[in-house]
Amino acid sequence: MRQIVFAAALGAAVFAFAGQANAEVFNNQLNVKFGVAGVLPNEDDNAGLNIEITDEAVPTLQLEWYFNDNISVEALCCLAPHTISAPALGEVGDVTLFPPTITAKYHFMPDAAVSPYVGAGVNYTAFLDEDVALAGFRSLDLDDSFGAALQAGVDIPLSERASLNFDVRRIWISTEATLTPDVGTPLRIDVDIDPWVVSASYGYRF
Prior knowledge:
By secondary structure, the chain is mostly beta strands. Helices cover 11% and strands 62% of the residues. The strands form 2 sheets. Strands 1-4-5-8-9-11-12-15 form an 8-stranded antiparallel β-barrel.
């Protein structure tokens, strides 16, 4: 709930700020999108633990800058809390992902009623609020990650400036998870999270 309230407030602040700016400043090149995304991990690990990370629905904010009708760059931001578990261990702990992603996009038919696009770029993921739940362990730490990102989607214009957006991303996120016991040697596990991110949003161009 805290993440949803924060994102809603941030989105409202962005729309309020941009709404007060003269539209001619941006010349219809800035598209601000606020929506919701399903973050669906496709997890794997090198320890054979069959690590499981929960699917989550989270609010998103996207800022897109158009260089021309066909080419744009987009930044995606969200906070995604997840619970980590394993069949042999039970619940391992909780963590929040902060995965800002920047992609370059190509819009095939920018004037169409349904305008498709594809994109590619990079992701940086920071792991926040790690909280271990396993008895006998005192901490859970996950290393930050850099990886590639791909996306495809469609924009559906509602007016000259407003639009709906539907988007699918694949983001490659890899981390080393360290479980530190109360006594003994830390357990280190390489984990691939590699989520699909499926989103719907409302956009307004300034």
